[in-house]
Amino acid sequence: MKGKIVFEEHMAILETTAETKDFAGESGRFDEFTEEILDLDDMRLAAMDRTGIELAILSLNAPAVQSILDTDQAIEIARKANDTIADAVKRHPSRYAGLAALPMQDPQAASEELKRCVKELGFKGALVNGFTQRGEEDSAIYYDIDEYRDFWATVSDLDVPFYLHPRMGLPSQSKNLEDHPWLRSSPWGFSVETATHALRLCGSGLFEDFNNLKIVIGHLGEFIPYNLWRMDARMRFSTRGYRGKKLLGDYFREHFYITTSGNFSDASFRCALETVGKDRICFCTDYPFERMDDAANWFDNTTLINDAERRQIGRENAIELFKLDME
Ligand code: GRE
Ligand code: ZN
């Protein structure tokens, strides 16, 4: 399918490349990976052309800004990354747009940076890599806490989507993953970490305070669609600490969008489709952690959707979600 629009598509700046190199795969792909994640011109555009991707809404790699302990430095790196994206958009306005990296260490600074990105640079929303560390290594701040309500007010006022992207949990917080680093990483831990954060947002009353918030999660829903019915069913018996007024499933269906990033599986896609419906699922790739070709080959050929649905999930939903000036 031509004309696809994608938005879990990562770039890096020199200051943030090192942390994702480990994920490049077998040694030898290091250099190629680094080249891919830094490149915002010929190589990326060629891959997009080859796979029928018209527009990529770019975002910084993970955990990047969220793992910087010093707040001023986090503010500076976020700005630098966002300016780099803005430059790429200027060079290729019909092929790229931006999602803002945000210094969540300081909710006020994060609000200011989001406003700058949306109002001055024309960004379409934010992509944040899970919890933020601040001050000391062993710290993890989640955005359902009261300190972030003014930040969410800004997101709500700007009416832009917020992509909650994975990062690895801290060893101190996950004894159960000790000595199993593969479990802490993208095969498992990324999703558990991100899903838990997403559920915290649902259970915090956040969506009662701001009923237009749109949260995006990738990887076909970070396990949540598969277990949503059961969560609501079990919460008939215990909702201790849950501050939502509606069922968890209602918040999830009303406030969340799911992308196909890095999960090119018919079985998972079928479950996500049945759980949230085709209006809430969007095609994304997760380049360069995944190959655009793998993503597009799967999506362009899956028989779970007809061609009108393919166009909706591959393009039209993104146009509506990000209010893109496209047809
Ligand atoms: C990602 O950003 O989506 C990612 C990583 C590392 C490994 C896999 C992956 O940052 O999908
Ligand atoms: Zn990603």
**Distinct bound molecules:** 2,6-dihydroxybenzoic acid, zinc ion
Structural class: alpha/beta
| Beta-strand share of residues | 5-15%
Number of distinct beta strands: 10
Number of helices in the DSSP assignment: 14
Could you please say which CATH topology applies here? TIM Barrel
The ordered string of helix (H) and strand (E) elements is EHHHEHEHEEEHEHHHEHHEHEHH
Main β sheet profile? 8 strands, parallel
Q: In order across it, which strands form the biggest sheet?
A: 1-2-3-4-7-8-9-10
The portion of residues assigned to helices is 40-55%
Principal-axes geometry comes out as: globular
CATH superfamily, by name, is Metal-dependent hydrolases
Number of domains: 1
- Using only CA atoms, what is the Rg? 19 Å
Level-1 CATH class name = Alpha Beta
CATH architecture tag: Alpha-Beta Barrel
Taking the alpha carbons of the first and last residues, their distance comes to 15 Å
The whole-number mean of residue pLDDT values reads 96
- As residue ranges, the low-confidence spans are none
Account of the 3D structure:
- The mean pLDDT is 96.
- The chain has helices at residues 14-21, 30-38, 42-50, 71-91, 107-120, 149-158, 181-184, 189-203, 206-209, 224-234, 248-255, 266-276, 292-301, 307-321; strands at residues 4-11, 53-60, 96-100, 125-128, 132-134, 136-141, 162-164, 215-217, 256-259, 281-282.
- It contains 14 helices and 10 strands.
- It has 327 residues and is of the alpha/beta class.
- The chain has an 8-stranded parallel β-sheet. Strands 5-6 form a two-stranded antiparallel sheet.
- It starts with a strand and ends in a 6-residue tail after the last helix.
- The radius of gyration is 19 Å and the shape is globular.
- 46% of the residues lie in helices and 14% in strands.
